[in-house]
Model the fold of this input.
Amino acid sequence: MIEQKKIIVVLPAYNAERTLARTYHEIPRAIVDEVLLVDDGSQDRTVEVARQLKVPCYRHTTNKGYGANQKTCYQAALDRGADVVVMLHPDYQYPPELIPALAGLVAAGRFHVVLGSRLLDGGAVRRGMPLYKYVCNRVWTWGQNLCLNQRLSEYHTGFRAFSRHFLLSVPLLENSDDFLFDNQILVQAVYFGYAIGELAVPGRFTSDSSSISPWRGTWYGVGVVATTLQYVLQRAGLLRCRLFDSRGRSLRDHHERYREPASKSLARPGLDSPAVL
Done:
């Protein structure tokens, strides 16, 4: 706990057997109350490794997408009473030892959203980030900062902390079930007036680091542009988009159903047999 706030770390996993144990063992359990894993239909031993580590595991029987994985992560964490939820990729790209720094800013009430930025200290390429990815990240971030009137160093990190209030309030169930979810939830934070904090994190870029193909990356970029355009048009009163509708589908609407212990869609998992979705 930090400031008497319950901290839960969620690991959205897909084929993470090689890096899961290393990531898990570096999570600072002195302040982290629980760690949860959601497996998105992995074809490797990710679920088996999670069982060996005694990590509560929720499992999608099919690959539903990275955004769908995060939705399940946040649903599960809120169901278990999280005040602060830290999303950490289990690919060992981000340093788990910085979880207290991210979670602390949320627990102290400074921000509802905090990002662990790989670009803030200027050393991402030197540490191995592919140049094409760095350039795309910079271009997309520059464009979104201009349109959203922000000064973030990146919108695409897989290391984030959120407050319970934020996750229950924004219509995140309207977001994509794919990679675009990451960007949409931050644009929603800006639209609904939540200040976003950033901390520099020294990312590791290895062959085990999760990444999307250039083709899917291109479509992700198109989605980033589309989301930004939707934001601008919504602000101008020229469009009504469900992403920015306060009455849109949110975890607050579904939270009581997820809390039902007999729920087949999201039961509390045991350590030996993961919940199946």
Q: What stands out?
A: The first strand starts at residue 7 and ends at 13.
